[in-house]
Amino acid sequence: MDEDRVGNIVGLTQMGGEGAAWIELAPFVSHDHMLQNLGDGTYHHSGSLAVRACVAAGSNVTYKLLHNGAVAMTSGQQAVGKMAIPEIVAELLAEGVARIVITTEVPKRYKRISAFRAVSTCAIATDWSKPRPSCPRSRG
């Protein structure tokens, strides 16, 4: 895959540890931020612990959490204990996550939870060749 599309891969981890390695790695690299992909199935399985650890350590990590209702890492079965997006947002806010952006085809669907200061919504781009200036960008 073209490196310009995926960025730099800085390490590998076990299921559920996504992003947590940045806690130890950050002081030794020139980047001050990490972007980590995480599916909702893995988040529900054990990835929420990595998010919790990063918040507790003050690590500068942006998690992109794909909410699709499957544990893709282990063949796509349904996620046990899965939560809806408002429940995940409430959990992340309770854990101390500083900022949450919900990207969706219908931003007004999440109007009630975007009332929280740390939460915003953004429309999904239908034409990926055009930037979406109204969407908040990560610092990464």
What key attributes describe this structure?
two-stranded antiparallel ribbon, globular, two-stranded parallel ribbon, 140 residues, Rossmann fold, alpha/beta, magnesium ion binding
Provide a descriptive summary of the structure in words.
The protein is α/β, with parallel strands linked by helices and 140 residues long. The protein has a single domain, classed as 3-Layer(aba) Sandwich (Rossmann fold). The chain is 27% helix and 19% strand. The chain is built from four helices and six strands. Strands 1-2 form a two-stranded parallel ribbon. The chain has a two-stranded antiparallel sheet with strand order 3-4. Strands 5-6 form a two-stranded parallel ribbon. β1, α3 and β2 form a beta-alpha-beta unit. It is globular and about 40 Å long. The model has no long low-confidence stretch (mean pLDDT 82). This is Putative oxidoreductase. It comes from Rhodococcus opacus (strain B4). GO terms for molecular function: magnesium ion binding.
Topology record:
Elements: H1 3-6, H2 21-25, E1 34-39, H3 40-57, E2 61-66, E3 70-71, E4 77-78, H4 85-95, E5 100-104, E6 119-123
Parallel strand pairs: 1-2, 5-6
Antiparallel strand pairs: 3-4
